[in-house]
Amino acid sequence: MDTNIATNTDKLISSLIEKVSYLPKEDIEKIKETAYYIVDKHKGQFRKSGEPYHTHPIEVAKIVAGLKLDTASIISALLHDIVEDTNTPLEEIREKFGEEIAFIVDGLTKISKHKFNSKEEAEAENFRKMLVAMGKDFRVILVKLADRLHNMRTLDALRPEKQRRIANETLKIYAPIASRIGLWKIKSELEDLSFKYLHPEDYKKIVEFISHSKDEQERFLKDIIKRVEKELKTYGIEATIQYRVKHLYSIYEKLFRKNLTLNQVYDIYGIRILVNDIKDCYLTLGLIHQLWRPIEGRIKDYIANPKPNNYQALHTSVITEKGKIVEFQIKTYKMHEIAEKGIAAHFRYKGGKYLTDKDLEIFRWLWVVLESIRNSKDTETLKDLKENLNKELTTEEIYVLTPKGDIIKLPLDATPVDFAYKIHTEVGHRTVGAKVNGQIVSLDTKLKTGDIVEIKTGKKPNPKKDWLRFVRTSKARTSIRQFLSKQLKEENYNLGKKLLDKFLRKIDKSFKELTEDEKEKITKRFGFHNFEDLVISIGSGKLSPAKVVSFLSTNEVFNREISQRKTEGCKTKDICIEVDGISNIMLNIAKCCMPIPGEDIVGVVVKGKGISIHNKDCPNIQKILKKEPERILPSKWSDKKLKTFPVKLRIITDDKPGILANISSTIANQKVNITGINSKSTSLKTAIINLQIEVYDINQLNKIINSLKGLKGIRKVERIRLRNI
Ligand code: MN
Q1: How far is the CA of 53 from the centre of ligand 1 (A)?
Q2: 44, 423, 634, 708: least buried by Cβ within 10 Å?
Q3: Active-site entry in 51, 85, 229, 694
Q4: CA separation for the pair 108, 140 (Å, rounded)
């Protein structure tokens, strides 16, 4: 038995040594020594499967070696359970392996159970401890993921209940972490293994379906690949084309999310095209789109816009002739290497150094995510903490930093403007420029997790309407809108004030001179809650300042008229005209056209005089209409015939005696007063008689004109207006 274990152990250690051949010789030797050291430490311990315990840390070290991580990572993987599960104190690790490795091992070691009151408390604290360590050294999480992966691979030995609990935790926490770090292979395997234990029936169905349809699908894909290869060759693009089955859990998710049947899921297979450089990536994408129609919204340019974890590639899905959808991933060999290894590709052994400062920059986002969770609450239970982490890892959020290092959480695609408003509304309002990681950027730049954002502010708040086009947070959107609407109100108020002032000057008043009483009167008349709103309404072009002024002037003149009535009386008190719905106001009849009831009229605001009533066809009205149409108010005669109006007539007659007497008697017969008359001879045979009479309305006037035209010796009768004379 012992020899058997020894032989198997040697074999196992050899397989590990094979995997670390990329490391320097002395490091390999150290790894070998450490492997035998832990075999000795775990002596007598067995896993649930019955295997010697040391198989676990050695397998974990092999997974870590598969990621081509540095020596410290591999040694830490070997040592990861030693403090927790054997009597070895951390001090011994520190002395034997140094501070660096001791730190990683400690990060992976649970705090001893008797320090906690409950199992929950213990789990929460241990989880927190791991997060803290992860934040300080990424290798902690890399080894932890490898540990979890091996545990998932060997989950069969556990009770179903425990299987489900661990599978669930893996799916919720560790797979998303692997995904965010860019460890796609580990993520997929973790998901598929979790899926297998959480939904065994569905898992079986999908596995069977894929194996059944495999031949047919392969034939189809090979045909597609042949056509792509031919096209690429024509254009001289060197490429490696691979196809792969999408991992089971992603197929399951697709079925579940879109409620499809297995036969409906066509893009179970994906095609990957690896080319030499970025130019070829885009060229290849174009060629594929020439062959098949791309599905809208499925073209993703992660080369121009890398994912937060720095993943780069072009993705597209096309519809082939048979209606089957095929997904293509196009990337360079280098991008592929990074994608496959994720963070690990950056941890590669680099001649003694495993990480450059620049590498660390790239992964700052993970640190930031973890930091934000760690800082959230002190007394969080494990459940909250895990849910929180799951949310942070799976939702579309980014974490950026202020120049001081404070973490700001923003939604995906947030811009420096969102950042500025998140800091403070006033900072947002005053934003004039931004720097990201020290570089000046445009304000619509999409921020990425880990970016250090610096906002340049101006003296005065000046948010732009244009910002609404690209901001992502409701805080920014609402703040900008509020500011702009306030600004618009102010602008409209100022404009309204100017306009009103200009019109007030027509009646020898000014905005400043408006009394509170007048303000209240016009506010009420035009239906506003306050005077400011009325002014804003004028400024925005909704209310005519002329209307306000004409109301004010007629009102004023009317007020003046009442006071004057007591002393002098008023000539026009009996005129009944309604102007724009207002009756009983001070009016005068325009001398230029002298309208009479029955004729179409309009009112004109005249400064200092109230409203003057004109004939609608008066040439003066035509002029005003062109220049200041606001001054014109619709008016009409009221029905009452209370007053007569002067009308001037010009009559051309034969120059014979007695004609004037005939005219006078005809007019008198109609009970119309003649208020003025003069006549003169023009030539040898005609005379012109100018006559002023008083009539009630146009009908009475027309009757008189018709009667006059019927008289003997009358050649022409015409009504005249002052300006015509
Ligand atoms: Mn372990």
Answers
A1: 10
A2: 44
A3: 85
A4: 7
Q: Angle between the 184-198 and 200-234 helix axes, to the nearest 10 degrees?
A: 150
d(CA 222, CA 224): 5
Cα-Cα-Cα-Cα torsion 572, 573, 575, 581, nearest 10 degrees, comes to 120
Tell me the one-letter amino acid at 174: Y
Query: What's the pLDDT tens digit per position in 542-571?
Result: 788 888 888 877 665 444 443 333 333 333
d(CA 271, CA 221): 8
Q: Is 84 a catalytic residue?
A: yes
649 strand-pairing partners: 691, 719
Which of 10, 29, 40, 84 is the catalytic position? 84
CA gap 265, 251 in Å, rounded: 8
What is the 134 CA–ligand 1 centroid distance (Å)?
A: 16
**Amino acid, res. 87:** N
Q: Is residue 296 exposed (0-12), middle (13-18) or buried (19+ Cβ within 10 Å)?
A: exposed
3-state secondary structure 376-437: CCCCCCHHHHHHHHHHHHHCCEEEEECCCCCEEEEECCCCHHHHHHHHCHHHHHHEEEEEEC
What's the pLDDT tens digit per position in 566-615?
333 333 445 567 666 454 455 778 888 888 888 888 888 765 556 788 88
Q: How close is the Cα of 388 to the center of ligand 1, in Å? A: 24
